[in-house]
Amino acid sequence: MPIPTPVFQWLIIKSLTWGRFRCLPMRNKYKLTVILLLLITFTPGISFGQIHFGVFADCQFCDCKTEGSRYYRDSSGKLADCIAHFNKNKQLGFVVNLGDLIDRDFESYTLLEPVLKQIEKPLFHVPGNHDLEVEPALRSQVPKELGLAEMYHSFQKENWHFVFLNGNDISFLSSDPDVVKKAEKITTRLKAEGKPNYHPWNGGLGQKQLEWLENQLQEAENNKLKVAVFCHYPLLPLESHTLWNQEETLALLEKYSCVKLWLNGHNHTGNYAFHHGIHFVNLKGMVETKSENAFAEIVLSSGAIEIKGYGREESRKLPVQQ
């Protein structure tokens, strides 16, 4: 159950104590009011309407030797440090993994399990391409490893609606031959058009998911909610890591003024773009470098998105257009 805002807490306390409160001398009323306000102000977890959460991307752990700048084995230690940091912040309501928790070997999920069990917050995953780069016979078990009853979903917290997408709806890693054929057709077309995102390591949103997304945005718009979208793949800027059906997805987002934030991983160097009132933030990959970490804490308020980066991750303060 969410902690009530300070105003609501004050009203609750007043309503519970009003009978006795009226009978107190004026000096005692003043003292009691000050004490109660101090308790409300400094109670851990109360953030005056703000929403706090942690986020990381591209851990890509596996028991594999280092390849270039990717230190796969060292990712478990960095993830453990990241989780320990999040656990210390009592204001964080939840944590989001932006995809690629593991790399290639399915056993990587098992090896990483003791680290993930240390987290004391609700943890939400969006699937990345490397999460599915396991033995084909085991791909159907990946959603269970990521705790995903549904591959795309959403929830509301205060005046924000959080949407979690599956960028692997259309993918070369699908177990459905028809989906693989669709992926081949899309990438062939993108390459012929000279688009930089034709690469097989990307993915796309299927038609059913796009229709679901539009319903989510329409409902949020009707209810005057702000929307934050999480996906493994970037939408802007257009580059070699961008979602395959970027144009269609972007056109959909542009129809709704409620969308304020798109958070993703995939491109380990990170990136940023601003378009149509939406901040597109690409977090840096945790797997890069031997010891320097990369993760962030995010604070959402009515007028700003504040990103506090740690390690290689940048800090940003982004205005929210009303």
Summary?
The chain is an alpha/beta fold. It is built from eight helices and twelve strands.
Notes on the structure:
The relative contact order is 0.13. The protein has helices at residues 6-23, 26-42, 75-88, 107-116, 142-145, 177-192, 207-222, 246-254, and strands spanning 51-56, 94-97, 123-125, 153-157, 160-164, 226-230, 259-264, 271-275, 278-282, 294-300, 304-311, 316-319. The strands form two sheets. It has a six-stranded mixed β-sheet, with helices on one face. The protein has eight helices and twelve strands. The protein has one domain (51-319): Purple Acid Phosphatase, chain A, domain 2 (4-Layer Sandwich). Helix 3 (75-88) links the parallel strand 1 and strand 2 (94-97). With 322 residues, the chain is of the alpha/beta class. It comes from Mariniphaga sediminis. It holds the Pfam family Metallophos. Residues 52-269 form the Calcineurin-like phosphoesterase domain.
Largest sheet: 6 strands, mixed
The proportion of residues in beta strands is: 15-25%
What's the total number of strands?
A: 12
At the fourth level of CATH, the homologous superfamily is Metallo-dependent phosphatases
* Morphology: globular
Helix content: 25-40%
Total number of helical segments? 8
Instruction: Provide the domain count.
Output: 1
The Rg value, from CA coordinates, equals 22 Å
* Class computed from helices, strands and strand pairing: alpha/beta
Which segments are poorly predicted (pLDDT under 50) over 5 or more consecutive residues? 1-18, 39-47
The succession of helices and strands, N to C, reads: HHEHEHEHEEHHEHEEEEEE
- Mean pLDDT across residues: 90
CATH topology: Purple Acid Phosphatase, chain A, domain 2
CATH class membership: Alpha Beta
Domain Calcineurin-like phosphoesterase: 52-269
Pfam family, one: Metallophos
Protein name: Calcineurin-like phosphoesterase domain-containing protein
GO molecular function, one term: hydrolase activity
